[in-house]
Design brief:
Blueprint: H1 2-18, H2 27-40, H3 64-72, H4 74-84, H5 86-89, E1 92-100, E2 107-115, E3 120-129, E4 132-142, E5 145-150, E6 155-160, E7 191-198, E8 201-210, E9 220-227, E10 233-238, E11 247-256, E12 273-274, H6 277-282, H7 288-292
Length: 299
């Protein structure tokens, strides 16, 4: 089954890379979540005529045995389910967080303002290496139009949001619609939790071990913090074989369901050149200015 799914996952990873999303090192977790996603694609009413995107009401178990297993650990499965359906509980959110993959690719810093009910998203991605910002991508989804900009290259692209596509409503926001629930799915004896508070909200504080059955690259001790009310991911630390931090998702600040000012949903593209989506997608691997001979202010 996994061999059959690998081409699908690889194509997915390639597609994500082309639009600027940084790929996680956890291939097995991605495969696990992808298997569930593919099994329920036809059931998901992702975009109900432009309204808040939601998922199906029933958790999509892959096998009857997995459903029976979840019944033996109802409290832990409740956390998995809350994370999987997080988008259903979040009307709007704003915050910032960092992803660090053992400094191999530097640090990714994300800032986001997302209004799911109004289908608006304003987000900013920065890649930081040795304390220096080496890449910046900004995105705005508003009124069904998507703007993406690389301000350091003075280029931008504009496209219309496709029907039933929730890609841009969650772009650079791996907190309120996280797939990291796959790390705690179907391995309930390997972790435990206690309740607490973080960012002024009730949370589940999870601690345990990731086995090679879940992820060969991330196996080892881990901790995770999840919003009890919404399932949002608020923190993740994976320590690997040598108990040294190899992956971290650190939320610096976040507000959920507290409303967002309309003033933030704006992107200044003056002084940038409009290019095609394909040119924009490959501009991070080619010297665009050298290739085109500079920029202009056309829109």
């Amino acid at each position: 089954m996994i061999k059959k799914l690998l081409p699908v996952v690889l194509v997915t990873l390639l597609g994500l890379t082309l639009v600027g999303i940084k790929v996680y090192p956890d291939i097995k977790a991605l495969i696990a979540s992808k298997k569930i996603e593919e099994a329920t694609n036809k059931q998901k009413p992702n975009n109900l005529n432009g309204k808040h995107p939601v998922k199906e009401e029933k958790f999509p178990f892959r096998l009857p045995a997995e459903e029976e297993y979840a019944k033996k650990y109802p409290n832990q499965f409740k956390i998995v389910k809350k994370m999987y359906f997080s988008m259903n509980y979040i009307k709007n959110a704003e915050g910032e967080y960092e992803e660090n993959h053992n400094d191999k690719d530097g640090i990714s810093h994300m800032q986001f303002y997302t209004d799911f009910d109004q289908r608006k998203n304003r987000a900013n991605f920065e890649k930081i290496i040795n304390g220096k910002i080496v890449e910046t991508i900004q995105v705005l989804l508003k009124d069904g139009i998507v703007l993406r900009q690389r301000p350091n290259k003075h280029i931008f692209t504009r496209q219309r949001e496709e029907k039933n596509d929730n890609h841009f409503i969650g772009l650079f926001n791996n907190v309120t619609n996280s797939e990291w629930w796959a790390l705690i799915y179907n391995n309930y004896p390997d972790w435990s939790y206690k309740e607490g508070k973080k960012f002024g909200m009730p949370v589940y504080k999870i601690k345990g071990n990731i086995t090679d059955k879940v992820s060969e690259s991330l196996q080892g001790p881990f901790t995770m913090v999840v919003s009890k009310e919404t399932g949002a991911l608020l923190d993740l630390k994976c320590y690997g074989h040598e108990s040294k931090e190899i992956l971290s998702i650190t939320v610096r600040k976040i507000k959920i369901n507290q409303g967002i000012s309309n003033d933030v949903f704006h992107l200044d593209i003056s002084g940038s050149k409009k290019i095609s989506n394909m040119e924009f997608n490959i501009s991070d691997i080619e010297n665009y200015e050298e290739k085109t001979g500079g920029t202009d202010t056309s829109k």
